[in-house]
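Task card 7
Instruction: Convert sequence to structure tokens.
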Amino acid sequence: MRLLIWVLLLLPTLFIQVIGAERPAKSIAFYYDSIDSVRELMSYERVVVTPSLITERQIETLHKAGTQVFAYLSIGEYDEKILPESLSLLSPVQNTNWQSHVMDLSAIAWREHLLQRASQYVTKGFDGLFLDTLDSYYLFAEEEAAQAGQQQALARIIEELAGLNAKPKLILNRGFEVLEQVSDFAHAVVAESLYHGYDPINDSYREMSETDSEWLTNQLNRVKALNLEAIVIDYIPGNEREAQKVAAQRLLNEGYTPYISDGLLYQFGVSTIEPIARRVLGFFDSTQEDYTGSLCHRLGATSIEYLGYVPECLDVNTIDFARLDINRYAAIVAWLDESTYNQQPQLQAWLAQHLNVRPMLFLGDLPTLPALRAELGLQTAGDLQGKINISQGKDWLKSTNTIAFSEFETYSKWLSAKPEVEVLLGVTDDTADTAGLLFSAPWGGAALSPLPITTLANDKEVWLIDPFRLLEGILSLPAIPAADVTTETGRRILTSHVDGDGFPSKSWFPGKPYTAEVLMEHIFKPFNIPQTVSVIEGEVSKQGLYPEISAELETIARNIFSLPNIEVASHTFSHPFFWKSTTSIKEKKYGDNLPIPNYDVDFHKEIIGSVDYINQRLAPKDKKTNLILWSGGANPDEKTLGIAERANLLNVNGGNTNVVFGNSSLTQVSPTIAWYPTAVQVYAPVLNENVYTSEWTENFEGYRRVIETFELLGSPRRLKTIGIYYHMYSGTYPASLKAVKDVHAWAIQQKVTPLYLSEYAMRAKTLYETGLAHTLDGRWQITSSGIKSLRLPHRLGTPVMNKSTIAGWEDSEDGKYLFLSDARATLTLSDQKDRTVRLKNANGQLLKWQRLGNVIRWSILSHVPLEFELAHAAKCKQSGNTTLHQVSTVENTVRYTSEKAGLFSGELRC
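Output:
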């Protein structure tokens, strides 16, 4: 979009929805930079974007969040570099400020071009169009008659755009000359620089003159008089956030819908809401490791996402530092070695430029640029000598592994060179000198080698310091409502899924039944909870390894898939052990895949082909496969994930989460997802029985220890769901079968909400695509494209129910677990207890919670016999589609239960 000052050229404007004078303004954003994620944009109720810079998938995500999306459309100018031959004679003049071609609005070919382009945008999924450059004709139409002709053509174009089959909403950028003629077709009118302007020529910001402001105010009064929404874009740079908020509030008070942002509209500005920066920037070096293998992702992301922030790991070799917007980041965590810093002078310069702009945490090594180290206030004095002892800050090492200083390693002697740089963890050596390992400073801090992790003799990595305390204590990240996928309606999620490996194997039970038959009789049928079962096509079909028994195996698979509590999934065609072409030969100790004759791995066949086979040959008519379970190393790259994404398939598996008592370092707890701009890999919440049985070589009852894993990852922080995950071959031995039975028996005794794995995956894939904002009046706003749960740290207070739009919460050790009943929720917090009736927890999915005076209408879908609890509801009367049993419990809680599963709805009168 281009800026046009009204006395000279023409200022750009954007869209908004008609709002009556008595209705509150709806938030809007104008954003013209590239879009890697829509997590910030979804906080606005409407967004205007460059059509070529957003994908259909991103538009769909915004729609799930309840955000309308408008496409920028230049009406008066052709804004691409080369004018097509078909339009070459229709441009009387060029706009040299923007290197664009001003067009004759009365030309039929130009009108047809605009209609065609608008139709393409609507087909792509846009809700409306933002019509810019409406008065560019002034650049060539100097006579009044010529101007009148262009205005008539403009009005006709606007009418024709409004009349397209999809009836797109139209937002006009100014167009004051034809305002009365087209008011019936306009959704809103935008004007820029009412009080704060931007000069693109010298990249400067300025206060508008009283004369300019008065003229534009008069034009906007005409807009209001026509009962159209008046949107004002003013320009203040993103590093002046408080000034942006003050300016937005002023416009709101004067009856405008505000948007305050940078001059190029490349940042996320302030409207009726202020988006909260949740990204935490990290780096990796692709010459040493890929994204999922990096320290940034593999070890750094888990604690960041738990705190409600979004870890963003960028490759130092591909970053365009000139375009890296610091305003979207809450903090920076740099976990790189000195060799990478030495090879990346641009990175070091960028870090130096933004020191004290956002908090920074350096892990392992510091940047090597002497001037930057001087600014950090840290310097070396050689190496530590002889025996090294902890002399200060031992409390930072509580409940963690002891630092073991190796005599074969050298450790730098780091000293504070500024009084404000504080040593939190110090050591002494044989020289009796004191040095620091952990530092806190006004700019953030550093945990330097041998911190923050070490590798034990068995090659296990362990944290030497609590990563949660490290992030909160050094970076001082503000506590925020955290998007959460461990919990559903206040209860921990329970899933159970089976990889198809070993389906044709015979068991050690009387009659030697197939392992799949054993599991069907002892797990799938008796445990009437949602379970997800997969098969490997190459093990079951006639095109696979065992064509002579295929008919028998397919019958067993059909019987399993026909069970009402079983969800159908694919575990690929030939079980590839690796999903990346970069895998080395040394790693391929099992080869590439199952040895199916005359077959070379084809990822399309592995994913889409296997799903088609299952749907056509094995799945009941009322069930379809919508889930691929990655095999082998479960390490697909973005391109491979895209195959599943384009086929609308969810995906799960991968990660490395496996902790037990005595081996519980958080280094073995993976993040929830691996996020890419075009696709998301959902990791298995917890690894399968393979890691509990030494890769299925001993201790076949070992999977029972996963109960320890679930307990460790549930307290003191709820980091993971209860995600039962095993293979078909667990049906081989009595010991392995008993372990799986014991785990399921333990799980159903917990206070859980059982979900199908696909339901968990739908939530998990959207974890980072959640919007967090403050309204201008101080409330939290949470916008979801899929997550249903929020964890509210206790120190933030208690929701005020009559001023919030949530259904309720359940108190837990690490916070209040709030649940959402709508995509967009507001939250008012207090330090006082709230006694309003609320839903406390349920073992199903909350579909509706609507308060209408003293009546609450609710709806819950439960895969198991329903149970839910209400707080402060002792005087409420319940009625609904099913009779429920009522029991009063402690703390003014009422519990309702049913002996059936299904969809329940009712009314509470309180």
